[in-house]
Design goal:
Structural class: alpha+beta
Largest sheet: 6 strands, antiparallel
Number of helices: 5
Number of strands: 18
Radius of gyration: 20 Å
Order of helices and strands: HHHEEEHHEEEEEEEEEEEEEEE
Shape: elongated
């Protein structure tokens, strides 16, 4: 399966079906992926027979309307673009001098549907973005505590009658994570064992109700002085 097909499937998983409704007739996120790939291919430099160096920083400029439509996808879009761009680089045999980073900015001089990608090689800091993967969906966790349950009062609501209204909570302090059962009816298990509260690491499986929730840590690159990977031109 090719780069664009992989991207489309990954994005559809993240936005849970909103992809075609949100971008029915305007710029498609899949076109951004293609533009990044083209920029990478054109700027890759052959240093030796076994080393081809590609730029690690990609700034994607979009028209104001297109940028506003992309903003709701936030970090999920950037994470998917970064993951698939990394896979493309590996397939091509490209290497990066530093961590890969992609950001979107708005450009009032561009027309609807236009995409301009500029690339450089820069150093970036890496932040870890905690997520829960369940049934093909990915939920980004916030700093502090995020609750999970079947009720709308939970931060993450899952349609599962096996879950209590607020079943369990995942705490993240920026460095480590833990999971706490919220006195649920059916209990919470971590790696198959019942728990009341315990620390968790990347790829830990939390079982609750009829679902398995996998805790993930996704690497997010942040250029110095940048607050977001999707930002305004004057942001």
């Amino acid at each position: 399966m090719g780069f664009l097909e992989n991207f489309e499937k990954g994005l559809e998983r993240i936005v849970n079906g909103a992809f075609t409704k949100t971008f029915k007739s305007e710029l498609q996120p899949i076109e951004i992926a293609a533009a990044i790939r083209a920029e990478m291919d054109s700027k890759a430099s052959v240093l030796s027979r076994d080393r081809v160096l590609a730029p690690n920083t990609y700034t994607v400029s979009l028209s104001l309307p297109d940028f506003k439509r992309m903003q709701p996808l936030g970090d999920s879009l950037i994470t998917e673009l970064t993951d698939l761009t990394t896979k493309h680089a590996a397939k091509q045999g490209f290497q990066f001098g530093a961590a890969l980073a992609i950001r979107l900015i708005e450009d009032g001089g561009l027309n609807l549907g236009q995409v301009v990608v500029r690339s450089t090689s820069e150093k970036h800091e890496i932040e870890w973005m905690p997520c829960l993967d369940v049934s093909g969906k990915r939920f980004v966790l916030r700093q502090g505590e995020t609750t999970v349950g079947r009720d709308a009062t939970a931060d993450i609501q899952i349609d599962d009658t096996g879950l209590s209204r607020v079943h369990f909570a995942v705490a993240w302090d920026g460095r480590g994570a833990s999971v706490r059962d919220m006195r649920s009816t059916n209990g919470t298990k971590v790696s198959g064992r019942p728990i009341s509260e315990t620390g968790i690491t990347a790829d830990t499986v939390i079982s609750a109700g009829r679902n398995d929730f996998t805790f993930r840590l996704i690497a997010k690159t942040v250029p110095a002085g940048s607050a977001s990977a999707i930002e305004g031109a004057n942001g």
